[in-house]
Design brief:
Blueprint lengths: L6 E5 L2 E4 L2 E3 L2 E5 L2 E6 L7 E4 L4 E4 L1 E6 L1 E2 L2 E2 L5 H13 L2 E6 L6 H17 L5 E2 L2 E4 L21 H10 L3 E6 L6 H10 L3 E4 L6 H10 L3 E2 L10 E3 L2 E3 L2 H7 L4 E4 L8 H11 L4 E3 L12 E5 L6 E6 L2 E4 L12 H10 L5 H8 L1 H6 L17 E4 L5 E6 L2 E5 L4
Parallel strand pairs: 1-6, 2-7, 8-11, 11-12, 13-14, 14-15, 15-16, 16-19, 19-20
Antiparallel strand pairs: 1-4, 2-3, 4-5, 7-24, 9-10, 17-18, 21-22, 22-23, 24-25, 25-26
C-alpha cells in the first residue's frame, strides 16, 4: 500500500528566491518543493516562521569532517556524526573529502561512504566523494601527508576511478607530469577536475583548463602567485583564477583563511556568480578548542585548534578549518560586504551549479528537492529540512 505524502508549508517568513526576497508561503510535498503561494493550502501542515528567513539549504562541496569525526576515520558512525553536525549549521548536502593517504585507506573509504550514504537519515546528505590528492605539489602540500604524494599516471588513477563510481570531484596540481591527460579523463567521466595545492604557472593552469579542469580548490590557500626566475616574472595559479572567466573558485570564507581584504578583492575581480563558499572543515568543526587529529585517528597528524583556528602543532600553517556553513554566510555579509542574497547564493545555488546538480538543488523552486534552512538575521539556524524532513530544530532557551 502506498503511503500518502504529507503536504507541508512554511508561512510568515522572508523567502530567498533566485529573483530576490519575497513574502510568500513555501509549500512542499514529500521530498519535492511544490512552489510558492500567497496563502498556505488548506490541506497543508503549516509551520509559522514569522520573523525568520527561509533559504535553500547550504551545500558544502569541500569538507573533511565535523563534530569530532573525520571522513578518514573509516567508520560509518564517523560519517553520520559529521553529517549530523553539519546539518545543525544549515548544511543539507555535503561532499565528503579525503586526505592524501595509502591506497588501502583510500579504497576502504569508498566502501564506508557507500554504507554511510545508505544509513544516513538524520544528517546532511552525501552528494559524492571529493578526492583531495594524492597528485599534489609537495611544496604546497599544506597539511597533506607528503608520504603519499605522487604524479598522476593512468595505471594508478584508472584503478581508482574504476573502483569507485561515487567520485564527484578530484583536486590535483596542474604542473605535475601527466596532469593534462588526467584532467581530460576526469572531464570525460563527468567528474569535476579541480586545481589545488599547486605551484603551477599561469601556463600550467591554462593547459589543464583546456583539458577540462573547471574549478580551483580553496582559492588563496596553498596556491602559487607571481614568481621571478632569472629576473623574469611568471604569473601563477592565483593570477589564472583572476583571469579565466570559465573557471569557478571556492573560498574558505571563515575570515581567517581569507581575510576581509581578499574577500573584497575576489568579489570585485570575479563576481558572486563564480564563487562557492566551502568550510574545508576538519573534525573539530562545531567542537571546542583543543588538540585533534587531522585525517584518520590512527595515521593522522595532531593539529592544534585555538581561538577557532586549526593549525599545525608548530603553528606554521593552517590545518583545514573549523568553519561551518552558517559561519561562512555570516562572514561574507559582515566582512565581505555581501548582501544576504549574494552570500546565500554562494552557499547554495553556485555550488549546486558547479557540481552539475542545479536541476535538483540550490534554490527554492517547484520540482526541486525540499532542502530548506530557516535562520534569523544573525544567521543562527532555527531549522534544517532535508528531503522534506526536519532533521534539526533549535531548542528554545
Amino acid at each position: 500500500m502506498r503511503v500518502k505524502k504529507r503536504k507541508e508549508a512554511l508561512a510568515g517568513g522572508r523567502v530567498l528566491t533566485p529573483e530576490g526576497e519575497v513574502r510568500k508561503v513555501l509549500v512542499w510535498e514529500g521530498n519535492r518543493i511544490l512552489g510558492l503561494a500567497d496563502e498556505a493550502p488548506s490541506d497543508a501542515v503549516v509551520t509559522d516562521v514569522h520573523g525568520m528567513i527561509v533559504s535553500p539549504g547550504f551545500i558544502d562541496i569541500h569538507t573533511h569532517g565535523a563534530g569530532g569525526a573525520d571522513f578518514m576515520d573509516g567508520t560509518v558512525e564517523a560519517y553520520l556524526t559529521a553529517a549530523r553536525m553539519h546539518a545543525v549549521h544549515g548544511t543539507t548536502l555535503l561532499y565528503p573529502t579525503t586526505l592524501t593517504c595509502s591506497d588501502e585507506v583510500l579504497f576502504k573509504s569508498f566502501e564506508t561512504f557507500r554504507a554511510a550514504r545508505d544509513a544516513n537519515r538524520e544528517g546532511a546528505a552525501f552528494g559524492g566523494i571529493h578526492l583531495e590528492g594524492p597528485y599534489l605539489a609537495p611544496a604546497q602540500a599544506g597539511a597533506q601527508d607528503p608520504r603519499y604524494l605522487r604524479n598522476p599516471v593512468p595505471e594508478d588513477y584508472l584503478k581508482i576511478l574504476d573502483a569507485c563510481p561515487d567520485i564527484a570531484r578530484w583536486t590535483f596540481s596542474p604542473e605535475l607530469e601527466g596532469a593534462s591527460d588526467f584532467a581530460c579523463e576526469l572531464s570525460r567521466r563527468g567528474i569535476l577536475a579541480s586545481i589545488g595545492h599547486t605551484n603551477a604557472t599561469f601556463d600550467d593552469c591554462d593547459k589543464v583548463f583546456h583539458a577540462g579542469a573547471r574549478h580551483m580548490t580553496h582559492f588563496f590557500s596553498c596556491m602559487s602567485t607571481i614568481t621571478r626566475r632569472n629576473a623574469y616574472r611568471y604569473a601563477g595559479a592565483l593570477e589564472y583564477g583572476y583571469y579565466q572567466d570559465g573557471m569557478s573558485l571556492e573560498i574558505i570564507a571563515d575570515g581567517i583563511h581569507v581575510p576581509s581584504s581578499l574577500l573584497h578583492l575576489i568579489l570585485k575581480l570575479r563576481g558572486v556568480d563564480s564563487i562557492a563558499l566551502v568550510t574545508d572543515s576538519m573534525r573539530a568543526a562545531g567542537m571546542p578548542d583543543g588538540i585533534y587529529k587531522l585525517g584518520d585517528l590512527v595515521d593522522g597528524q595532531d593539529v592544534r585548534v585555538e581561538d577557532g583556528v586549526a593549525k599545525l602543532m608548530d603553528r606554521s600553517a593552517f590545518a583545514g578549518s573549523v568553519a561551518t556553513t552558517d559561519r561562512l554566510v555570516r562572514t561574507m555579509i559582515q566582512m565581505g560586504g555581501c548582501s544576504l542574497l549574494q552570500a546565500v547564493q554562494m552557499a547554495s545555488a553556485n555550488p549546486a551549479r558547479f557540481m552539475g546538480i542545479q536541476d535538483r538543488k540550490g534554490s527554492l523552486e517547484g520540482g526541486k528537492d525540499a532542502d530548506i534552512v530557516v535562520f534569523d538575521d544573525q544567521i543562527r539556524i532555527e531549522r534544517t529540512i532535508i528531503g522534506g524532513k526536519t532533521v534539526y530544530k533549535r531548542k528554545k532557551p
